[in-house]
Design brief:
The protein is an alpha/beta fold and 204 residues long. It has 6 helices and 9 strands, in the order E-H-E-H-E-H-E-H-E-H-E-E-H-E-E. It binds 5-O-phosphono-beta-D-ribofuranosylamine. The site of 5-O-phosphono-beta-D-ribofuranosylamine (GRF) has 12 residues, from helix 1 and strand 5.
């Protein structure tokens, strides 16, 4: 399966996909797009020999023009699944429609709790004792969309942001590659007429 990845910064989730799946037979990361020029994720892509390009919207004529150009660039590379891995900008409705049903995101909370930015801080400030990671389909509204996989993490109390972040990242780096592999194996199906996702992850 040909996978595209969108990043904005560090790209540690991209790295997990490259290390665990890329070039091992079932998954090829074929394109990495970034919202910013300086994203470390772009360097990680180059180091793995994957085509990568920055698409800063301010320089491309605004968000819609940028999303159109970025969508064309991804389609030219025949991306079958698009992964938002720390892409920190809202995508235009046209872009979301274009990749509907084949675009997923990883978010550091148990959605629908704590959507949006600063999810980890929101959870700590709220005082929840359990948080976690969600991989979900992308819809127009931010951090909604049918849920593919989730994993929980019990929070220490009081919870320190750095420690929780490290632990959540560790979970993300397992859960996201797992979800992508399940897509590659055609084991993920949205149940028609519902928001539920059938995930067949038995046996491997
Ligand atoms: C992750 O915590 C992800 O859940 C969120 O943005 C962060 C990206 O981290 N959407 P990285 O760039 O993959 O290191």
């Amino acid at each position: 399966m040909r996978v595209g990845v969108l990043v904005s910064g560090e790209g540690s989730n991209l790295q997990a996909l490259l290390d665990k799946l890329h070039g091992k037979g079932e998954v090829e990361v074929v394109a990495v797009g970034s919202s910013t020029e300086g994203a470390r994720g772009l360097e990680r892509a180059h180091a793995a020999g994957v085509e990568a390009q920055a698409f800063p919207y301010a320089e491309i004529g605004g968000r819609e023009a940028r999303d159109l150009a970025m969508g064309d660039w991804l389609e030219e590379r025949e991306v079958e699944l698009l992964v938002l891995a720390g892409f920190m900008e809202v995508l235009s409705p046209a872009f979301v429609r274009r990749f509907a049903g084949r675009m997923i995101n990883v978010h550091p909370s148990l959605l629908p709790a704590f959507p949006g930015v600063r999810a980890i801080e929101q959870a700590i400030e709220y005082g929840v004792r359990v948080t976690g990671v969600t991989v979900h389909f992308v819809e127009e509204a931010v951090d909604t969309g049918p849920i593919v996989l989730q994993r929980s993490l019990e929070l220490p109390y009081p919870a320190g942001i750095a420690e929780v972040e490290t632990q959540l990242h560790r979970i993300e780096h397992e859960l996201l590659p797992r979800a992508v592999l399940l897509f590659a194996r055609d084991r993920v199906k949205v149940v028609e007429g519902s928001r539920r996702v059938e995930v067949d992850d038995a046996g491997d």
